[in-house]
Model the fold of this input.
Amino acid sequence: MERHFHTDLEALRDRLSEMAGRAETALTKAMEAVRTRNPRLAEEVFTDDPAIDKIELEVEESCLRFLGLQQPVARDLRFVVASIRLSNDLERIGDHAVNIAQGAIKLSRLPVMAAPEDLPRMGERTRGALKDAVSAWLRGDPVMARRVCERDSDIDADKAHIFGALSAKMLRDPECVPSALELLLISRNLERVGDLATNIAEEAIFVAEARVIKHHAEERTTEA
Done:
């Protein structure tokens, strides 16, 4: 029974790993579609998204089965509970990739306008945060997870710089407003992906250390 239980846990881990890979690929394709003004590549993001949604449902069903039949305890229990939240975060990341892909298609139909230099950097930082957060989760590495949380402020700073640059550009040149607004929405979606990567990193810490750091709970515990 115990061997079967841990085999099932590994299968759950593998499905989450696949889901994370698909979400990261969707984000990469979406940002490349923005860079190259390639609507066909953006369409691939739409096509791939149902697979992410399907895995989320499978993971949730598996986790509920674990809780109802296997009654895991300690770290295994934390892993199962956090897996439900992780799958939800990954599904939302897939949705944000779809939003970015939609922006790429709209931009491809508008006059060419150079994106702020912060935008590709923000995309790389966000993708790196997601990749490292998932790695921290899979490895049970709270040190790496905390580094992901610390890097979120860099992504927020990129978003602020992009907003300032595009706002100034729209004031100088009203004709660029449609393109600038799409780029602003893309940066907003990247910011949300960064927030979700931070959520995943926080779940990695929860599983590894039985410590909740969401909403500064870790700081409140220390002060108490």
In short: Residues 217-224 have pLDDT under 50 and may be disordered. The helical segments are 2-36, 39-70, 74-108, 118-139, 142-172, 177-209, 217-223. The radius of gyration is 19 Å. The domain at 2-223 is CATH 1.20.58.220 (Methane Monooxygenase Hydroxylase; Chain G, domain 1).
